């Protein structure tokens, strides 16, 4: 029954924002003890990924390196000028499937769920669906 | 109960073909009102992704840029000559998890589901599984 | 009910290890006939992917090429020196959603599930969750 839409505002062109708290809150609110949780991003220039949050340098390195691999400008044809963001969105992915165990998200010690903005700043949404087994 | 196998023919080496209609039809046919939908590609040189379909230049830019990042020829060892396709398949991914809400796929305004051919032309399959909550 | 944690040891810095047998065993043990199966990796410098296992050259080519695309050293800031592994982890992904049909994993002829080590050698875990429809 539980599918909650969350909204957030991004502030940079490329930005990784932790949404672990919002996802965990939706899981808690659902009352599901054993099941799965889907995080779905309904945009084509943003995505969702899991990575480390202990050292902010990790996210800084990811941010820098992916724009080296997929440059902002590279003789793209798309007139909006955000083709790099579309490519990053497909490579990082639009959805995540997570495990819910004993009423909580099963995440590794260093894992954080990041909303991944590739064409900000913008107002964005993501959906969290919790399914009981 | 619903897991439907769809077949399609690709016409180019690298091609993104919208399969949103087929996936939506399987969801409608399943009768599931609230749940999730898995799209699974059983190949190792093809995948599935979500991206924009409003401007065909987006797909053209993605197609061109990914073959620049992962070149068709780069001193690969695999004798079939399609290592680039295998790499693209792993980076784009073989499965998608989508949300079903009020009997319909929950997709953003600009989102289209693309079967992603990286070693065509070929006859290909994909599976659509719908799960009720 | 079934969510099983598996452990494995990796031996190289970058290594793709087939875990299809362990995943299939958990599916069999669950008794689920029709449903889905989630493979989740709780690390931020490893992931999970599907690719070919018929010719080992495919995995050799993937291993070599991804470290060309995302170099081990590239003026990263993160002091642990494994930023490349974090980036690969996000691009390959931390989870897979698979279909269970007639009590078995639905996989293509050439598909193998690979635990993807990007910062080994280490002792690693992955979780397999099976959900009945």
Let me know the number of strands of chain A. 8
- Spatial strand arrangement across the major sheet of chain A: 1-8-3-5-6
Q: Specify Rg of chain A, calculated over alpha carbons.
A: 16 Å
Give the largest interface pair and sizes.
Answer: B-C, 33 and 33 residues
Oligomer: homotrimer
Number of helices in the DSSP assignment of chain A: 3
Let me know the average pLDDT of chain A. 97
Question: How does the overall form of chain A come out from the CA principal axes?
Answer: elongated
Distance between the termini of chain A: 13 Å
Q: Helix share of residues of chain A? A: 25-40%
Let me know the largest β-sheet of chain A.
5 strands, antiparallel
Strand content of chain A: 35-45%
> Uncertain segments of chain A of ≥5 residues (pLDDT<50)?
none
Query: What is the chain-wise order of helices and strands of chain A?
Result: EEHEEHHEEEE
The computed structural class of chain A is alpha+beta
């Amino acid at each position: 029954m539980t599918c909650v839409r969350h909204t957030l505002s991004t502030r940079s062109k490329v930005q990784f924002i932790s949404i672990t708290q919002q996802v965990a809150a939706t899981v808690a609110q659902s009352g599901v003890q054993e099941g799965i949780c889907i995080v779905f991003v309904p945009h084509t220039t943003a995505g969702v990924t899991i990575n480390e949050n202990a050292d902010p340098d990790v996210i800084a390195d990811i941010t820098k390196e992916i724009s080296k691999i997929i440059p902002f400008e590279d003789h793209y044809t798309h007139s909006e000028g955000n083709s790099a963001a579309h490519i990053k969105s497909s490579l990082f992915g639009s959805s995540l499937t997570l495990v819910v165990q004993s009423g909580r998200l099963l995440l590794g010690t260093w894992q954080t769920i990041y909303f991944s903005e590739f064409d900000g700043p913008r107002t964005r949404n993501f959906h969290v669906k919790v399914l009981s087994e």
